[in-house]
């Protein structure tokens, strides 16, 4: 049974951390241990890169007088390799088999309206005053995340096709664990038979659903920093939802944050509809309980 498991940003960085290599590796060690219940079967791992790609952009801006800054799509490629190397080293020790990172391009539409309406959070959190200053001085778009602060947001077009799909399929067939679609994949369009990078960050959960559907995965597991999808989030009426059919999930979508839980439920819904199989949203800490039906949110067809 093939599982595609999407790791959220908290798999590498926790609130209050600076994101050093040592911090990220320690956090990944805990996350990889939590993945043990999935490792008896075939596995493809995807992951986010919001904090890391944001940090990379800050580095490039501050060093621009000495070295030429790179476009955003190459910053995505850099963080794919960075995070993939860390996952390889930690997950292979737990799984006892080869873990291989595939530098993954994902085709998007150059005319996607998302390029004119940035929504994808990247980089660290700021207070409102500092965020507004950066917005003015650097031309950033910024947005507020409830209970967490302000972050830079960039374009997040819809993923259409996984370019390295057959390479991932081949790796899985050998018994290896493939790490793919890091940070949602490197956004590209096809021009004159060549791939051309586009400056955006694709939502990794949406890309994970596209990958899982194309691979014929038996299930999609989306790991985040909360145990389940909730109705009336961050209010006294907040209620965790254990199971949602596709109609209920679609009805809930407008009430969820566009840069946070919304894309996760949207991806789970897309997978359930396309395959007739279940998707699961939960935290790494609650994964074992969620697989047993005692935690998390299961989206069913």
Summarize the structure in words.
- Helix 1 crosses helix 3 (72-95), helix 2 crosses helix 3 (72-95) and helix 6 (204-215) runs parallel beside helix 8 (261-275).
- The strands form four sheets. This protein has an eight-stranded mixed β-sheet with strand order 3-9-2-1-12-16-17-15, with helices on both faces. A four-stranded mixed β-sheet has the order 8-4-10-11. A three-stranded antiparallel β-sheet has the order 5-7-6.
- The protein starts with a strand and ends with a strand.
- The relative contact order is 0.16.
- The chain is built from nine helices and 17 strands.
- Strand 1 (2-7), helix 1 and strand 2 (42-47) form a beta-alpha-beta unit.
- The protein is α/β, with parallel strands linked by helices.
Taken as a percent bin, the fraction of beta residues is 15-25%
Q: Kindly identify the CATH topology.
A: Carbamate kinase
User: Distance N terminus to C terminus?
Assistant: 18 Å
Count of DSSP-assigned helices: 9
Q: What is the H-and-E element order?
A: EHEHHEEEHEEEHEEEHEEEEHHEHE
CATH class: Alpha Beta
How is the biggest beta sheet arranged? 8 strands, mixed
Mean pLDDT across all residues, rounded?
92
Chart the SSEs and their pairings.
Layout: E1 2-7, H1 21-34, E2 42-47, H2 50-62, H3 72-95, E3 99-101, E4 105-107, E5 120-126, H4 128-138, E6 141-145, E7 149-154, E8 161-162, H5 165-173, E9 177-179, E10 186-191, E11 194-197, H6 204-215, E12 219-224, E13 230-231, E14 239-240, E15 243-245, H7 246-252, H8 261-275, E16 279-283, H9 287-291, E17 297-300
Parallel strand pairs: 1-2, 1-12, 2-9, 3-9, 4-10, 12-16, 15-17
Antiparallel strand pairs: 4-8, 5-7, 6-7, 10-11, 13-14, 16-17
Helix pairs in contact: 1-3, 2-3, 6-8
